[in-house]
Structure formats: C-alpha cells, structure tokens
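Posting here for the record, re: flavin-adenine dinucleotide.
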Amino acid sequence: MAAPTGGEVWSYLETVEEDLHETAAQAAAEARRVARLLEGRACGVIAGTPQRRLLEDLAPFGLERIFALGRAPGPPPSVEQLGRALAAVAARRAPRLLLFAATPLGCEVAARVAARLRRGLISECVDFARDGDGLAARRSVGGGRAHATVAWCGAPPWVATVSLDALEAVRAGPGDVAEVVAEEADFGAARTELVRRWRVEPRDLDLSEARVVVGIGKPILQRPADLAIVAEVAERLGAALGGSRVVVDGGLLPRERQVGASGKWLAADVYLACGISGSSYHMMGVKAVKHLLAVNLDRGAPIFQRAELGVVGDLFEVLPELRALLAPDPAAGGSGR
Ligand SMILES: Cc1cc2nc3c(=O)[nH]c(=O)nc-3n(C[C@H](O)[C@H](O)[C@H](O)COP(=O)(O)OP(=O)(O)OC[C@H]3O[C@@H](n4cnc5c(N)ncnc54)[C@H](O)[C@@H]3O)c2cc1C
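Prediction output follows.
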C-alpha cells in the first residue's frame, strides 16, 4: 500500500566497539539516496551515544538526524536486544523505511525488527525506485541469474536489508554534523551472552567469508607437492585457499574448500585464480568477487573474460615469483611488499 511521499528514511549505523562499522557510512549514503527518491529526510539510528568523532566521520554522507538509543554502559547489546530497542523506537517515530546493510548482524536485526513491527522485510535489495507514492525494491534472485522487483504491502515502517555489493559510501559534500536526537530505548534483558571472541586466521576462514581467496585448478594434480607453494602464497597474502572441483575430487583439498556452484560462493574483495579455466560452474561461485585476477597458460581461457588482471603464464613459475615478492622483509621485521 502506498503512503504519502516524505517521511524519514533511517539507516541503521552499525558499530564495532566504539567505532563505526565499515558499512555505516555506506548505509547512511543509501538512506540519503532513498530519501531523495521519497522526497523525505535521511536519518540514522545508532545504539548508544555517538562520540563527536563518529558524527564528524558521518557528516559527508548527508544524514540530517541521528537517533541515539540510550543504553546503559556494559557489553554491546545482542541482536535480540537491538531488535527490541529499534522496533520500539521505530513504532514510536514511524519512519517510512528502515535500512540495514546486509551484514550478518544487520540481517538478523532487520528480521527481528520487521517481526516485532509486523511489517514486511525485503532482503538483499540492490536498488530502490519510486512506485507511485510508495517504494519498490529490486533484489537479485537465483544467485544473480535474475532480478525481481518487490514492493511492500501495508503501511510503513518498511524494513529492508541492502546487499553489501550494492552499497557505496557516496559523499554528499563536506556536510554538517547531523543533529543527534536522544531516544529512550528499552533493550530488555540479554538472553544470550558473548562468552569469547577470537580472530580466525585467513586460512581457517570459511571461503564464503574470506576477503581474499587464492584458488588452484587442475594443473596442481600433476604436481601435488607444489600445493605447498600455493598455500604459502595464500598465507603471505592473508588469503584463504580454495580450488576447483577437479582439485577437490582429486583429493588435494577438502570439500569445504571447493569454489563454485556446488561448492562455496565467494564474497571476496580479491580472488586469484591459478590454473582454473573458468567453467560456468566455477564462475557461478565467484560472481560476487570484486576483483578477479587469473594466471593461466592459455590466453583463450574463459577465466580471462572476467579477470581484471590476467597473467598468461605457467603458474609453477608465476607463483614462486609471487612468493618471493611477498617474502617477509627481514630489515623491516614485517611482511614484504
Ligand atoms: C553439476 C556440476 C557441478 C559442478 N560444480 C563445480 C563447482 O562447484 N566448482 C568447480 O570448480 N567446478 C564444478 N564443476 C566442474 C566444472 O564443470 C569444471 O570441470 C571444473 O571447474 C574445471 O576445473 P579446472 O578449471 O581446475 O580445470 P580445467 O577446466 O581442466 O582447467 C585447467 C586450466 O588450467 C590451465 N593450465 C594448465 N596448466 C597450467 C599451468 N602450468 N599454469 C597455468 N595454467 C595452466 C589450462 O589452460 C586450463 O585453463 C561442476 C560440474 C558439474 C557437472
């Protein structure tokens, strides 16, 4: 159901300890963009009282107001507590739309807010458009093979998560610091407790979570001992190691290290594909990769159609060279170039 134009578009400003999460500025920029579509105001909503430094960081992204949900000092609220507090404030303030970056936390909180408000949630949106007086979202479906336009039924507040690939921290200009509106919020009691948190080494990360991935293809089956060189390059790049199905079927990598349609789907910033032809099954798993680099002997290999940077060469020569370039610099006492 449509609602009159105007109103507020809220972006949830995710934080990590006292800092903004990397998606906060992107979510703010998206709220500004959608607010313009709806001829409304772009606002942010944050748990806790934002420090001046955070407000200044957000200033270029064009939020007019930030609703600061007051909370007692202590451990960060759980997704359940955030959902409860945000839903209560949204019910009171009635924004037109509440946007979340589709981070793991954003997705969970958005679902809880929508359920509490009994409003529609459209997830993984890649774009928004005016639909009469209302708003419709475009989302990618079927692993990116098709797109669908979805609109909210019923009155606002509407809830959406925005695909991380679609988010961009577009600056509006130098901008003024947003007005902060302190909101009382009931986070309720925590029903879960964070017991321990630790950093996972890139090589142990699930492939779908890794920012950088090195993928190895069939040629390694002829020289399995050289898998150690590939693993070392991955380690020096801070990358997770994966491979094509042929390599997994050949027993050189475990099944959870397979990249592709019947394996893991990457969301990495960088994927370095070595000796991988670029079959459609493999490429389905790398669709969301931001920068694809490839090493392949065959100039006509399909992988080069998608690669941003291609090296036509023998991976068994290129990777040792790369390993040497990445060697720790003893003089600097750190990692190399
Ligand atoms: C239902 C189904 C599901 C599938 N799911 C997946 C999946 O999830 N993931 C997946 O990967 N595959 C999957 N496959 C398999 C897929 O079709 C391909 O067979 C596979 O991706 C090919 O792997 P590859 O690129 O390592 O090998 P190849 O296609 O054989 O390519 C090897 C490449 O290495 C290059 N090369 C050779 N020697 C060197 C060298 N010394 N240096 C540099 N380059 C060299 C060659 O030029 C070639 O391009 C699936 C298949 C089916 C039927």
